[in-house]
Amino acid sequence: MSSRFQSAVLGSSPVYPSAVVWSDENLVAVACGSTVSILNPGNPVVRGVITIPSSEPFPLGVIDGGEEDLLHGCLLPFHLSRDARPCVRSISWSPVGLANNAGCLLAVCTTGGRVKLYRFPFCEFSVEWIEVMDVSEMLYNYFKTTSFGESHIISSESSDVTLRRESADHECASDLPVSSLVKDCKRRKPNAASVAAQDWQIIPVSDRFGKTQEKVTADCNLPLITVQQYASRSAMLMSLTVAWSPILGTSGNGVAIPHNYSNYCSILAIGGKCGRISLWRIHAPEIYSIDSAKCSSKVSLVGLLKAHDTWITAINWAQYGSDVSKPHLLLATGSSDGRVKIWRVNGEELLMSSEVINDSFSLLKEVTGLAWAFDGRCLYSCSQDNSFKSWILVGNSLCEVPNPSHSPGLKSSPDVPYVFDSCFGLAVSPGNLAIAVYCLNICHGISRTHRAAVEFLWIGGQQLDISSGACPDIDNESFPGLPEKVLIWWECNMLWSLGQYENPSRILNIWDIVAALLAFKQSAPEYVEHILLKWLTSYFGSQFGNSMTLLSEAFKFLPKLSSRQLHLINIIIRHVVLKECKADHMSSKQQELKGLSVTKDQVNLWMELLLSSENELLERLVGFSFSAILSLLSNSSVDSFEVGCGSLDGLRQMEQWVSHNEKNVKDHSKFLAAKVGKVEKR
Fold first, then answer.
1. What is the DSSP pairing of strand 397-401 with strand 388-394?
2. Which of 4, 156, 175, 319 has the fewest CB atoms within 10 Å, i.e. is most exposed?
3. CA 102 to chain centre
């Protein structure tokens, strides 16, 4: 297994697999019993919590039959005692942009079969996250309108139904604690027993003699159904696992549509006990706001897939192919019989469909043996026998490859044991360079105890090709300590990860990239410099002969870069190259950086590049603000007094900035500043 660099000890033990997920906002959610703990991996302490409440069962119907029907095998799970408060069975983060504050939603599936969506408490200012939607209630309403796919249902609405609890002294022949509900009807025997399916609860209550009594509640206005119908309906509504797809919705030129467009959405897949997966299209809110507590997202059921013949236990999505204008997805599904299936999904049909469809899925491959990484090229799996495996997609088959075994500068914790007995879930970091594994350690002895922890492992050196040759510009003698192939894959994967963040629709969260570069910087600073210069060469061109020439000429090319690329340069220089510089001395050229392989002249060049990129970003921000104000004032329906009063102080600061940097700012910025100044005088 890969080497650990961070860990967080949790108070509760995991109960179900798929118990840890990592969001694009760099939050890690961990399911612990009846709660969900939310952590920040940079400082792994609990930052939020979701407490799962009890919920009322769905009113499915009344079982039409006698006492012998209550002893049918399919009702056995409902005779057994169960906790009053359900546990968390599965959790999954949505992509960024689906919550009201433009953040992520967290889907939570409980042992009661309920699936609900939660958001960050940006209005409530509390630790407890806020419920915004009950998807299970919507699934029940859909099945109710379709009569659960059944053709004949006995009606009891016209009958006078009286339900009574039998005396506590009554026991059936098999001595099982069975409660009967008697229907008084002229057309039926007076002692016929029936129970309200899924609308009654058996709660064991021990009396002073140790006998078990039962408390039964029922709804009289329910249809009569058979035992088999009850079992089938319960399985259809019993959700077991959840997973969000990548964002769907593109413009005609293949660029991701901004978050406020109506077809910017994600597909929430919910796997059930019946082997069926329901797919819900959830749109981003039309308007983002931190003042409104309501969820204004549009939700539609768009697909039902019969994926397995047994319980669905795991689901995971990945983007397939590079043509975002015609999105295709990969859906990996696992079931309780040990099978894993890989499906191709037509994302365009799910995006445009106005009704529930079943033919947008094609089986790609079934393997036995779940989180996707590296743009759907790699699949990670773990199991409760403590196995952790890596797979790469080659054509129509998955091939196992070695796990990354070498990592940059390691960080260990003496409080957490490294040897564990079971793995209960895994999640890949936003940049795909690290993975979080939820593990359980069983301590045997006089008292059998459980200890849980989240292990953060590096996967940046993951091999993504079965036959890979050596990279010509990697000299292993210059970067000792790690095998050449490991260095090659770390370089390729870090450059790929940086390239993914050039997309402006993706939230700028490069925590794992920065952490990996800093870890390498401790043992191989020349290797870090090699990667960064190669990355900058992709921006500025390869016509420069050496690093000094590249850094000295880079500022001339900054106006041609996108704002996202400038932000990336700024973050990498501040948090990696000039990490040792203090913030208040960042503008000084006299800083000396310990542990770097660069010369003092190179340090000054990096500093010049940082300041130039910041000035370019500031000038773009000022120009955009000026243009926005002038555009608002040109609109006759906007009150110029309101615009001026609301932004007067900020305008003056921006005008002063343009005046102080008159020699460096562009003529267009000066023109806008002068035009805004005239408006202020008016």
1. antiparallel
2. 175
3. 14
- Residues 6 or more apart from 77 whose CB is under 8 A from it? none
CA dist 190 and 564 (Å) reads 76
Contacts of 624 (CB under 8 A, 6+ apart): none
Q: Identify which of 211-215, 446-450, 485-489 has the greatest average pLDDT.
A: 485-489
Q: CA nearest 520: which of 490, 497, 499?
A: 490
- Mean pLDDT for all residues in the chain: 75
| 517-533: burial string, b at 16+ Cβ within 10 Å, e else | bebbbeebbbbbbbbbe
Taking the C-alpha atoms of residue 626 and residue 419, their distance in angstroms, rounded to an integer, is 59
Nearest CA among 51, 28, 48 for reference residue 40:
28
Quote the pTM value. Answer: 0.66
Specify whether the CB–CB gap between 380 and 370 falls below 8 A.
Answer: yes
In this structure, what is the dihedral angle of CA atoms 564, 569, 570, 572, given to the nearest 10 degrees? 120
The pLDDT of residue 171 = 29
Show Cβ contacts of residue 451 under 8 Å, excluding neighbours closer than 6 positions: 9, 13, 417, 440, 441, 442, 443
- Sign of torsion over alpha carbons 35, 39, 43, 47: negative
| List of residues 6+ apart from 205 with CB closer than 8 A | 212, 213, 214, 215
Q: What is the 3-state secondary structure (H, E, C) of 181-215?
A: EECCCCCCCCCCEECEECCCCCCCEECCCCCEECC
CA distances from 57 to 60, 69, 202, 217 (A): 9, 21, 12, 11
Higher pLDDT, 482 or 456: 456
The β-bridge relationship of strands 43-51 and 35-40 is antiparallel
* 572 φ, ψ (degrees, to nearest 5): -65, -40
Angle at which helix 484-500 crosses helix 511-523, to 10 degrees, equals: 150
**C-alpha closest to that of 319 among 345, 341, 294:** 345
The per-residue pLDDT for range 246-287, each reduced to its tens digit, is 988 754 344 444 444 557 899 999 999 999 999 999 999 888
Instruction: Determine how many CB atoms are found less than 10 A away from the CB of residue 614.
Output: 17
- Rounded to the nearest 5°, which phi and psi values hold at 11? -80, -30
DSSP string, 431-479: TSSEEEEEEEEEE-SSS-EEEEEEEEEE-TT----SS-PPPTT--TTTS
Backbone angles phi, psi at 436, to 5 degrees: -100, 125
Average pLDDT over residues 83-100: 87
Q: If residue 536 lies in a helix (H) or strand (E), which one and from where to where?
A: helix 525-540
Token reading at 228? 């088999």
Residue with tokens 């090709």, as numbered in its chain: 465
For residues 375 and 392, give the distance between their C-alpha atoms in angstroms, rounded to a whole number.
Answer: 11
288 vs 372: CA distance, rounded Å: 29
- Rounded-to-integer distance, Cα 9 and Cα 413, Å: 10
Distances (CA, A) of 410 to 42, 210, 521, 597: 15, 56, 12, 21
Backbone angles phi, psi at 8, to 5 degrees: -140, 120
Q: In which order are the strands placed within the sheet that holds 434-443?
A: 4-9, 449-458, 434-443, 422-428
Is the distance from CB of 438 to CB of 454 less than 8 angstroms? yes
Three-state SS for 327-388 is CEEEEEEEECCCEEEEEEEEHHHHHHCCCCECCCEEEEEEEECCEEECCCCEEEEECCCCCE
Q: Is the dihedral of CA 403, 405, 409, 411 positive or negative?
A: positive
Indicate if the pLDDT at residue 189 is higher than 50.
no
